[in-house]
Amino acid sequence: MRPRLKIFDSDTVNLPDPTVTVLLPVRNGELWIRECLTSILNQTSKDFEVVLIDDGSSDNSVSIALSMNVPQLRVVLGPQAGLARALALGIESARGEFIARQDVDDLSCPERLETQVRAFREDPSMVLLGSSAIEIDSGGGKIGRLRVPKSDRSIRLRGTFVNPFIHTSVMFRRSTALAAGNYSSPSSSPYPEDFDLWGRMLKFGRVRNMTKPLVQYRRTDHGLMAQNARLIGVAAGQVACRNVAEILECAKLSIGDSQLVSMFHWRSRKITLVEAARILALILRIRLKFGLLPMFQGLPIRIYLRPIIWLYKTP
Predict the structure, then answer these.
(1) 66 confidence band (pLDDT: 50, 70, 90)
(2) At what angle do helices 273-290 and 301-312 cross, to 10 degrees?
(3) pLDDT per position as a tens digit, 214-264
């Protein structure tokens, strides 16, 4: 049963369920909301709805969105209890078979939804699909490209230690997200809710990243991650430790191993030569579980270099 929603715009109950729900959490996004929604409206496929979760905005984000008269738009009052819980409400509220995540400061390329839905139709066993991204600055200028592992095995390997997906690029089956426990977090504090959910969803089917960039990811100094790097990093380290323990089939890692794995997300000290050898040996043990060749498939070279850097460089 779907939760009762507080919807500001026209009621969509009597409309056929769309194939895709674009899930758009917003908190004070007036600077980007018009451009973001325009990129969604310009999709080559029109079989979608937009569920905008207003998670405590105090600016004109919602009024700007409603002024655009988007017929597929529903605005839902968020719980104001953190991004993870806002996203969880969005999943519960969605009517689409597939969920396409979108951040308010990012843009979707016109063929994004059509391309991703086609890939799901071609592979019924796939549950989660992302892509690489064009990186842009606050003014929309291109500053780089974000690359991600492509194949199911390489994603699973990288996803053991670090996030293998660009959150704003992903599309996934709504049913799988719910079966995996939906987005969740232990509190309302900023949390790596995407990294946490992917680890649970990997158990339900195949995953993939598309080589072609389907989104533009905006790099700013005001995003949730930039402003809460330490808090999110510490929590992401705990998620990585859980992943490693599951791959190695042990109840939990030793305190020493947990500290080293966590440092891929938040480093607080230099390490010793023995510790550097220990974390490198752990990486190789994980690699053997996946049998991936060549050496840098799945894990980028920087993963192997970090323990060496930790030996000499003070955080």
Answers:
(1) very high
(2) 170
(3) 999 999 876 667 678 899 999 999 999 999 999 999 989 999 999 999 999
C-alpha–C-alpha distance, residues 235 and 189, integer Å: 10
Q: What share of the chain is helix, strand, coil (3-state, %, to 5)?
A: 40, 20, 40
Residue given tokens 């029109």 in the structure block: 46
Which pLDDT band holds residue 15 (cuts at 50, 70, 90)?
confident
Residue 66: both structure tokens together: 């409603």
Domain topology for 20-227: Spore Coat Polysaccharide Biosynthesis Protein SpsA; Chain A (3.90.550)
Instruction: Please name the residue that has the structure tokens 């951040």.
Output: 103
Looking up tokens 């959150």 gives: 167
Q: Is the CB of residue 298 less than 8 Å from the CB of residue 157?
A: yes
CB-based contact 33:61 (threshold 8 Å): yes
The single-letter DSSP state of residue 132 is E
Q: Which two tokens stand for residue 109?
A: 């390329």
- Residue 4 identity (one-letter amino acid): R
What is the number of residues in the chain? 315
Phi, psi of 151 (to 5 degrees): -80, 160
Give the Å distances, CA to CA, from 127 to 20, 72, 99, 203: 14, 24, 11, 10
Residue 139: both structure tokens together: 């003014």
Sign of the Cα pseudo-torsion (180, 162, 55, 81, in order)? positive
pLDDT per residue over 269-312, tens digit each? 999 999 999 999 999 999 999 887 677 778 889 999 999 999 99
Alpha helices in the chain (DSSP H): 33-41, 61-67, 83-93, 112-122, 152-161, 174-179, 193-201, 224-227, 229-247, 255-262, 273-290, 301-312
Distance CA 174, CA 283 (A): 32
Intervals of CATH 3.90.550.10 along the chain: 20-227
CB atoms under 10 Å from CB of 315, counted, come to 10
Q: Name beta bridge partners: 283.
A: none
